[in-house]
Specification:
The complex is a heterodimer of chains A (195) and B (419). Chain A is mainly alpha-helical and 195 residues long. Chain A contains eleven helices and no strands. Chain B starts with 5 loop residues before the first helix and ends with a helix. The chains are: A mainly alpha (195), B alpha/beta (419).
Chain lengths: 195, 419
Amino acid sequence: MLTTALTLFLLFGLATTALAGPLDTPGYAKAVTCSACHGANGNSRSESMPILAGMNVAYFKKAIEDYAAGRRPSPEMEPFAKQVKLLGVDEIATFFAAQKREPSPGKPDRAAIERGRAASTACAACHGPEGQGDAPKLVPAIAGQPAGYIRNQLLLFKADKRSPGDPALTQLKSVLRSIPDETLADVAAYYSSLK
Amino acid sequence: MGGLTRREFLKSSSGAVVATAGLAGCASSTGELEAKRGRRVVVVGGGWGGATAAKYVRIADPTIEVVLLEPNRRFVSCPFSNLVLSGVRNIESLSFGYSGLRDRGVKVRHEMATAIEPDTKRVRVGEGYLTYDRLVVSPGVDFQLEQVEGLAAAGDKVLHAWKAGPQTVELANQLKAMPDGGVFVLTVPPIAYRCPPGPYERICQVAWYLKTNKPKSKLIVLDANQNIVSKTALFRAAWQAYPNIDYRASSKVVKVDPGTREVTPELGDRVKYDVINLIPPQRAGAIAVQADLVGADKRWCEVDHVTYESVKHKGIHVIGDSTTGLPVPKSGTIANAMGKISADAIVALLNGQPAPSVPPLNTCYSWVSDREAIAVVNAYKIENGKVVQVEQKLTPGQSTLCAQYAEGWAQSIWADVLS
């Protein structure tokens, strides 16, 4: 009986001194406001906001730098990127990278996915056959991102509104200009459908 | 001890307390309404701030019991409710239940908190009470009906539709029933009020509806403020498409008479209306006033910028539209952010740790037609314990792309608040 009481006391003592919850995870508290748009733990469930869960740390940091500097023009993300930098981008990037990515729940349009698959060969050269990206080259994993988000990014690249004038993207943009918008939407549906 | 998990038992302060709590567990409408077995957070108000706070306390520490008091069984979103007036959306698409919070272990009670007793750490609910370790007060706004002569007596004859729900639907019906050639009068209260761009978005939606369906009708706006309060240039540009708007600045309404269908501004002539939407002056929700959480202005609650603890009463955190002193708008996004940040602060404090220092953020989308939207975005930092704005940015113009983001924001944040 005494042993039981002692065990309970010890367990109880431990339980109150260590939180051992999400707040102990570096970055959790700093990233908590992002879920308003980017979903629980960065798993966006909407068509237009990208999934941050599982995003490569270096790519996340590049995206924040690009938004803050206006290279990715966005009235929403430019101020928030500056806020993230002030809060500590490393911690926030590491937090999202450690979260399990749950692919976008968007309704699959089988015909669009098939058309997109056929049109996606040019993309695979950089983004990989499964859309898994190429982390060392800062090429993002696009598999499972919301179709609306991917389509919007393709349209921004096509119009040279994302990273305007960036020589590394000149070829990509000239390829995109030769592809009709509807086909880009199909390609987006295809990559979104990959898990 | 039936019903207690091992973890809850370990979390309670001693075996003896657990035994007592077990005996007091029988449901009763007097005394302690829920047997208190461990640490408890009570949340007053299940809107954007309160529902978020309740959920995020459970996420950050599931050993803390959370009781949410919210009289309404359905959460109806104020953001997007202006689209119900134009018929672009229906109210059901903005209405949600609280089952998502229950799934997270939040004890949702559809009852009204009637009083707060900071000394005994109790919230009064009818004849009974709930004891708390920390309290979150998120009561939204209440209307200062006494500021406009005739308004209190007018009852349902003069609608605010500023808390989404039955009044929103009724105002939409009145707009639909108004004869072509009729006059719709909308009045904007003096700052501070819930949702600074809200009245101007509503003006767009009513004007769009009238232009599309009743082209001979007119929308007269009586604004208590000297100019459009938020996104001024963007709304001015949007209104170019609506010549049916007659906007009158510095026209504070002081009297309404539903008998003669007239409103009276402080300066200028009486205005006749067919349909009136009078958005009254506002203050913090009644319970914040009753509990002496409001400042000298008797309207709004001052709080710590890191923990949202009231500057007047320890252990009580106030969030959302009823707060003042932070350079933030009274918006849904801000209330949601405050809900999460205060939840983390409360969990840290209840576990003997310092509260994390995290600033809120804001986005406000406004629909300027049936398909285009504009937005304002605010970023913040915390400097010397105070929230300071880093930057405010507006969309360059109105667009369907912005409307896509507005839809995405709504979907995401409704889930963030409630599921």
